Amino acid sequence: MILRTLVLVAVLGIVVHSRSIQRDQNWWNHATFYQIYPRSFKDSNNDGDGDLPGIIEKLPYLVETGVNGIWLSPIMESPQVDQGYDISNYYVIDPRFGTLDDLKLLIIKAHELGLKVILDFVPNHTSDQHEWFKASENRTEGYEDYYVWRDGTSDKPPNNWLSLWTGSAWQWSEKRQQYYLHQFSKQQPDLNYRNPKVHKEMKDILKFYMDLGIDGFRIDAIPYAYEDDQFRDEPRSASPVDPNDYSYLEHNYTSNLPETYALVYEWRKFVDDYAAENDLDSKVLMTEANADLNQTMLYYGTSDGKNLGAHFTFNFLMIQNLNLNTSNAYDIIQMIYSWIDALPDIYSSNWVVCILYVGMKQRQHKQSLIMSSLFQIGNHDNRRYPTRYGAENKDGFLMLDLLLPGVAVTYNGEEFGQEDGEVKYEEGQDPTARDPAVFEQKSRDFERTPLQWDNTTNAGFNEGAKTWLPVSKKYQELNLKSQLDETKESYFQNYKALIRKRQEETARLGSTNIWALSNDALVLRRSYEGKHIAVAFKLGWKDNNEQETVLIPGVSCQNGNVAIASVGSQYKRGDNISLQSLVLQPHEAVVIDIEC
Ligand SMILES: *[C@@H]1O[C@H](CO)[C@@H](O)[C@H](O)[C@H]1NC(C)=O
Ligand SMILES: *[C@@H]1O[C@H](CO)[C@@H](O)[C@H](O)[C@H]1NC(C)=O
Ligand SMILES: *[C@@H]1O[C@H](CO)[C@@H](O)[C@H](O)[C@H]1NC(C)=O
Ligand SMILES: *[C@@H]1O[C@H](CO)[C@@H](O)[C@H](O)[C@H]1NC(C)=O
Ligand SMILES: *[C@@H]1O[C@H](CO)[C@@H](O)[C@H](O)[C@H]1NC(C)=O
Ligand SMILES: *[C@@H]1O[C@H](CO)[C@@H](O)[C@H](O)[C@H]1NC(C)=O
Ligand SMILES: CC(=O)N[C@H]1CO[C@H](CO)[C@@H](O)[C@@H]1O
Ligand SMILES: [Ca+2]
Ligand SMILES: [Ca+2]
Q1: Atom of ligand 3 nearest to the CA of 293
Q2: 515: part of which helix (H) or strand (E)?
Q3: Closest approach atom of ligand 4 to CA 323
Q4: Ligand 3 pocket residue status of 154, Cβ below 6 Å
Q5: CA-CA distance, 446 to 206, in Å (whole number)?
């Protein structure tokens, strides 16, 4: 009885306390999120697959990195045809990852440590093994219109729409004698958002996880939520490719429809209302937006300010448009500049002036603090960034990634420079690349190999059981543990230093200037009240093998101090260096503190 009373008092104490503290509506504003690919992160029970207890075990490590929150790639029940992006039950955790109790414990522990937890939410489609789909295919009353069904004959689909994964987006159902739509694989039937019941189901799911304490959602594949209600054929694109390839058509009837933006606004209102009613920190929504910039901006909301959308959208420009072989410093600048140009006016109180220099041409732009995750440099769908931009450029890109304004997202392993793994065709798991002819080019397995924790068996991912994808052979040299020594220079020490730097006022609130000094060198400068943080980076791309002398434009003082230097740099932390003629070797990058 006494114990009970004590517990009750303790619980009430917490409630009273939580009522009296100021809720933080902007916690996500400058946050750094860490994307965990659960199956490859840490396998706690040695069955070959990473799991939730493995993540719990590593939470203290994540706190040490300095990140504010974690985003978990899908963990809900799934036949794993698309590694969890095909959900068969939204209310159950996939057994390979653990149980709902594991998730609850993870949330409690993460919150104790000050980490937010974001879940991947996959609303465009379910697995074909979901009960809703079985019922819908069966025309069970109430479920008939949960998916997008159309008439056709078994040899002639309803229209020319293509799946992102090649071939027709329509699959014939013998049982229902109709076609269903699948914008991804045929095991991922698209839900029908023209049915209000589907809206209700999705809100119930969001509420279920918010009740568990989840801090927000990363909404997968949102551009494909709605399709044209007249089912019109899509027009031919300009690129002369295989008629089965998604890029053969323009997709203005199957992606980024006005109704899709409205859906995001509806969910934003739903999570905002939930946080307000329950007196909680804001719940965030992140959307994926594989769209042109004007369309992407609509995911943030409407320019009249009447609708709020996602807190931030993922921008894949950096990942998709930069190529070691063909891009240069001007391309990087142009990319940042096109993004900033398109930013909406809706968060106008946050706006500060940003000036970009393309060569010597100066353009003035506004810049919003919500221009988030601009430089997300990798994820589970693209080759790891050291592979894309050159392993020698790891530090320079990380410096840009983390010192540009807004939110940043680190894909697990990036913090210590993990590179692509080696996966043979026979070992591959990605369903989009089960064809030897396209495996090397298309497979997403290379960036999904287990995390390299240390130099023990299976890189410390587990205790020796065969892993779902092979552990990279590079783990003996390239692993986290070898970089933990704070007295030795390493990518991980630089990562931690960058995360700390991000939290300084200059990085949070400062204006942003970026210059391409030549086609191989660039400078980023953040400035706030007489203090500056500058990044000077010599890419060393292609045959630019000469050292280069650079300057930090627009500062009145002559010298600054090195805060962070790339691994192997001639400069060391604390060095007093010239801002007028700073010599950089190819691939060398430095972060400089300047006060004047
Ligand atoms: C299929 O439909 C029949 C008849 O309406 C019903 O009895 C049965 O339960 C349904 N099966 C499923 C899996 O919904
Ligand atoms: C889609 O594109 C075609 C051809 O470019 C155009 O005629 C049509 O108006 C567009 N439809 C929509 C809904 O944007
Ligand atoms: C975006 O909209 C602006 C203004 O309406 C237009 O000038 C620009 O061409 C559009 N850009 C794209 C990529 O559609
Ligand atoms: C870059 O060029 C090298 C050598 O010319 C080639 O092997 C590689 O495939 C190219 N990479 C890309 C991403 O185009
Ligand atoms: C493994 O790493 C530790 C330091 O983390 C080092 O002392 C040891 O020599 C390494 N072993 C091998 C086999 O490389
Ligand atoms: C750097 O050294 C110069 C002299 O070489 C000195 O005047 C200046 O104050 C130093 N600057 C910093 C930031 O330490
Ligand atoms: C970046 C990302 O999350 N991509 C996912 C988009 O959605 C498809 C289908 O759900 C997945 O296969 C991708 O991994
Ligand atoms: Ca496991
Ligand atoms: Ca859809």
Answers
A1: 13
A2: strand 511-518
A3: 13
A4: no
A5: 32
Strands 361-367 and 352-358: antiparallel
Q: For a pLDDT cut of 70, what percent of the chain falls above it?
A: 88
Is 381 touching ligand 7 by the criterion CB < 6 Å? Answer: yes
Q: For residue 386, what are the CA distances in angstroms to 96, 127, 392, 520?
A: 30, 33, 8, 17
Closest protein CA for atom 1 of ligand 3: 294
Cα angle, residue 448 at apex, residues 442 and 449 outer, rounded to 5°: 120
pTM over 0.70: yes
* Ligand 8 centre distance from Cα of residue 440 (Å): 27
pLDDT at 102: 98
Between the CA of residue 120 and those of 117, 160, 214, 217, 307, what are the distances in Å? Answer: 10, 30, 11, 6, 23
Q: Which sequence positions are flagged as catalytic?
A: 220, 288
- Tell me, what's the pLDDT at 433? 93
Q: Is the CB of 341 under 6 A from ligand 3?
A: no
The pLDDT value recorded for residue 14 is 36
Q: Which residues of the chain have pLDDT under 50?
A: 1-20, 345-373
Residue 358: per-residue pLDDT: 38
Report yes or no: 332 and 322 within 8 Å, Cβ to Cβ: yes
Domains of the chain, start order: 32-126+196-351+368-483 (3.20.20.80), 509-595 (2.60.40.1180)
Identify how many contiguous H helices and E strands the chain contains and give both numbers. Answer: 15, 22
CB of 78 closer than 8 Å to CB of 25: no
Pairing of strands 559-565, 589-595: antiparallel
How far apart are the C-alpha atoms of 544 and 496, rounded to whole Å? 30
pLDDT at 410: 93
> What is the per-residue DSSP string for 160-205?
--B-TTSSBSEEEETTTTEEEE-SS-TTSPBB-TTSHHHHHHHHHH
CA 582 / ligand 7 centre spacing (Å)? 43
Phi, psi for 159 (deg, rounded to 5): -160, -170
346, 350, 351, 352 alpha-carbon torsion, rounded to 10° = -170
Asked whether 366 lines ligand 5 (CB < 6 A), one says no
C-alpha span between 34 and 15 (Å, rounded): 29
